Amino acid sequence: MSIRQMTQLWTWVLGLVLLCAVPVSAASPDPDAVLKGSVFNLQRRQDEALTSVLPKLAQADVVYLGETHDRPEDHQAQLALIQALHRLRPTLAISMEMFQRPYQSVLDRYMDGTLTENELQAQTQYAKRWGYNWDFYAPILRFAKANRLPVIALNTPTEVTRKTARTGLESLTLAERRFIPPLSAIVLGPNSYRDRLQKIYAESHHGQSTSVNLERFFQAQVLWDETMAERIAQTLQQQPKALVIVLVGQGHLLYGDGIPARVARRMQGARSRPSLTQISLLLNAQTSDYLDDRPSADYIWHTHALPETP
Question: Is the CATH number of domain 3-302 3.40.50.850?
Fold first, then answer.
């Protein structure tokens, strides 16, 4: 893994502790400019035409749009891709890491038109629990509302993730387990994922960490992924005709170890989806950092001709 890639992954991991960001100005979305971007196929190690990629995405069961949270062009790309996919396959469900699972009913009330945007932010505690510029995600939510598309809150409650990192999964009370999978359904692996996170954790603690602290840290990361995977799998089963689009940080997608493999495990044998196709896009990532022997995702999407952020 390259230094840049390690930095990218550590930025994602750091969200476990910080979970709030300094607001960043968002450029106005320009879907036409975004869709002039290029796509690199990591499996084949070659560029691929946008006209051939979009139909593949539209035919999938799950499409992951992996973002860097504070990069405005990533969110512009998400909106443009959602709009393009909606034209090809109108039945969409948009799943978002940016909202925590206890606030699903609040999201539903916003979608029903009974809450304003300001009320949605306040009642989901958006500024406290996510904190990135609201304007990054507001156009996506408005598009979903205008087109009556369900929006799914994916994330683990902050308090639960932090407590797991401090004292481990077994320390969680029954009340704290309400919005996470049963502990028996949480798989602490694979070893390749553990090894990557161990390197990051050791570097951040300058070699002073203990094995117990590392294990709790790993449990917290896996809990984060498993909670989101469970909700995605539930959506797939409840809405068998929908294409589920997932907006999530890139670190949750790399090599499929975070969310995708956990969704696939939950969907094995599901009658609603006898087969499962998942496609991961890393938005605006540096291609040279992801040319590993084992593909880290399916595609890298590069946006071109975007207006510069003031």
Answer: no
